Amino acid sequence: MPFYNDLRPAKDFEKRDFFRVFPDMSADEKQRCIEGILRIKNTVKSEIPPRKTETNLLLASWNLKEFGHTTQRLPEAYFYIAEMLNAFDLIAIQEIKSSLKDIDIILRLLGSKWRYLVTDITDGTDGNREQSAYLYNTSRVELSGLAGEISLWDDLTEDSPLGIKQLKRSPFTTGFKSGWKKFTLINLHLHPSDDDEDVAYRAEEIRLLLKAIE
After folding, report:
1. Cβ contacts of residue 197 below 8 Å, gap of 6+?
2. From edge to edge, which strands make up the β-sheet containing 142-149?
3. Read out DSSP for 9-67?
4. Residue 51 CB: number of other CB atoms within 10 A?
5. Are 118 and 133 in contact (CB under 8 A)?
6. Phi-psi map region of 92: left, alpha, beta (phi>0 left; psi -120 to 50 alpha)
7. Tens digit of pLDDT per residue, the chain (214 long)?
8. Contact 92, 185 (CB under 8 A)
9. What is the biggest distance separating any 2 CA atoms in the chain, rounded to whole angstroms?
């Protein structure tokens, strides 16, 4: 369960100095945030299966636009993000930029059972200086020891009709373990898609990646 000490009534802090991530939130902001969290909880309850020990593992993927870079997010947005993430056990996140500030805030809200693993920054214009990450609930899943980036090689890409030599953002493959089951995920942020030419480029990236791991 996430730790939302910031949203406690003022009288609670007269008894104990609870740790706060956003100590300057106003009463109106807190009220609006609580109402938003309750709406998310109701949606999660109706749309996402409940956790069942040794029966399921809840996975998600989320492209959090310019995470760690943009300064436009209100404090309440972090609570909403944390509440959504908490509905799952393991989440692949894309488009982490500039710093890990935002992901550290989310981990503080989620609590001590949560960890993250983050990739190196992909340099260059094509890479957009992005990182990807996995967030995982250690009471449900743990790392198995496998982690690495997938690179393409000349023999594999020589027949690419678009002349692709490497994916613009390096795919990150990681092994996990949940109970008796071991499995591997690939965290991938494809080339942006705005028109037919972009769609074709994305399709070729996928083809080459599948060819590399087959």
Report:
1. none
2. 142-149, 172-178, 181-187
3. -TTHHHH-----S-TT--HHHHHHHHHHHHHHHHHHHHHSPPP-TTT---EEEEEEEEE
4. 15
5. yes
6. beta
7. 788 999 998 888 888 888 888 999 999 999 999 999 999 999 998 999 988 877 889 999 998 887 877 778 899 999 999 999 999 999 999 888 768 888 999 999 999 999 999 887 766 666 567 788 999 999 999 999 888 888 899 999 999 999 999 998 888 899 999 988 999 999 988 887 777 888 899 999 999 999 999 8
8. yes
9. 69
* Beta pairing partners, 172: 149, 187
Tokens of residue 53, six digits: 């020990």
Rounded to an integer, what distance in angstroms lies between the CA atom of residue 189 and that of residue 133?
11
Q: Which two tokens stand for residue 121?
A: 């920054």
One-letter amino acid for residue 128 of the chain = N
Q: 160 near 208, Cβ under 8 Å?
A: yes
